[in-house]
Amino acid sequence: MCGISGYFGRNTIQKESILNTLNLMKNRGPDFAEHYTKAVSSNLAVYFLHSRLAIIDLHRRSNQPFIIGDYVLIFNGEIYNYIELKKHLETKGVFTKTNSDTEILLRFYIMYGEKCVDYFDGMWSFAIFNQKKQTLFLSRDRFAEKPLYYYKDNKGIYFGSEVKFIKSLSKKTFSHNSKKINHFLSFGARSIFKDNSSFYNEIKILEFSENLSIDNSLKIIKKRYWKPKTKVNQKIDIDETVDRGRNLLINSMKLRMRSDVPTAFLLSGGVDSGGLASIATKILNQKIKTFSIIDTDIKYNELKNIKKVTDDLNCESEIIKISKNNFINKLQDLVAYH
User: Fold this and answer.
1) Beta 32-39 vs 156-160: how paired, if at all?
2) pLDDT tens digits, residue range 162-181?
3) CA-CA 20 to 30 A from 88: which of 42, 51, 118, 152?
4) Residues with Cβ < 8 Å from 259, sequence gap 6 or more?
5) In the chain, alpha helices (H)
6) Alpha-carbon distance 13 to 46, whole Å?
7) Does 297 have pLDDT greater than 90?
8) What are the phi and psi torsion angles at 18 (to 5°)?
9) Contact in structure between 102 and 67 (CB atoms under 8 Å)
């Protein structure tokens, strides 16, 4: 998890606001933080802020904002197939200076423009600024795993991984979206992302599989680049279905286990997390650690099942117990974070 935020427009953002925002972004990226500021014309400027949680290529060379020529990138997420994409670049005579998926992402944009997302297998929200054309490009992954909010007024566009970053950079007070709040309280978290509205009327959410392009006149073009398609094959039998599903899951896990830091699993007593941890250990031969939250209420306590999995995998595990004594303080922290 990294943090991104920024602004493109006619306003001037003071250094104090930039530093305050970077401080807010530490929770998302404790390893490195930096910003990029450039006046691109007499009345137009761009501000990019990034906080890094280093996962792939831990060297400083992969820190962000990441710049190649006229292109500047800030990126939250992972491009899982970056090794395969690197080989594709090499067949085109393009060779990288880092081992990061960050550089791969930007080089694919330089080569393919907005079509770059068609090549990516991953989760992302990113912003790319083209200094020569004076354009901003925002994108969010196919299933909206990585968050991206934005606010546009008549002078420019603010964006960020969290609403608080936009509030900090803009120094604006936004009005509460009562309808959205009521939907959330009535129908739960699944009701939140049915459209592009947020808990604030003025702040929008970039939706799944969406790109946003902004030119130097601040005109916005929004485009959905992908939609899921289904094709039913009635001829395959149950054994083939199981084998194909199993292979897809293992190959998907193999891509997602690429990391230059240790890998951990959030392990409940359920089938999903236990199955994934088992694939990582038994099939992919990865050394893992698990973390599990244990409730003192017997109805929700899955310690017995968790121990069965960790004993079977012979992996390091850490148990985190919920305490009723500090519940209110934790709730306050949670509300402040969100």
Assistant:
1) unpaired
2) 999 999 999 999 999 999 99
3) 51
4) 55, 56
5) 15-24, 82-91, 101-112, 163-170, 178-187, 238-256, 271-278, 303-313, 327-337
6) 10
7) no
8) -65, -45
9) no
* Comparison of pLDDT for 62 and 189, the residue scoring more: 62
- Burial classification of residue 172, based on how many CB atoms lie within 10 Å of its CB (0-12 exposed, 13-18 middle, 19 or more buried): middle
Residue with tokens 């409730």: 295
Sign of CA dihedral 222, 171, 189, 186: negative
Asked if 116 is an active-site residue, the reply is no
80-89 tens-digit pLDDT: 999 999 999 9
Per-residue CA distances from 219 to 6, 154, 215 (Å):
17, 10, 6
Q: In what order do the strands lie in the sheet with 204-205?
A: 32-39, 45-52, 3-9, 156-160, 149-153, 204-205
Please state, in angstroms and rounded to a whole number, the distance separating the CA atoms of residues 118 and 142: 10
22 to each of 2, 149, 245, how far by Cα in Å? 12, 16, 42
Cis bond before residue 65 (omega within 30° of 0): yes
CA angle 129, 134, 136 (to 5 degrees): 40
**Per-residue b or e along 284-316, where b marks 16 or more CB atoms closer than 10 Å to that residue's CB:** eebebebebebeeeeeeebeeebeebbeebebe
Contact between 159 and 170 under an 8 Å Cβ cutoff? The reply is no
pLDDT score of 308: 96
Cα–Cα distance, 323 to 119 (Å, whole number): 46
* Closest C-alpha among 48, 7, 61, 54 to residue 28: 54
Q: 193-243: per-residue pLDDT in tens? A: 889 999 999 999 999 999 999 999 999 999 999 999 988 888 999 999 999
Question: Residues 1, 2, 237, 307: which is the catalytic one?
Answer: 2
Q: Report the C-alpha gap between 315 and 301 in whole angstroms.
A: 20
Residues 6+ apart with CB under 8 A from 169: 5, 6, 7, 13, 17, 18, 21, 47, 49, 158, 160
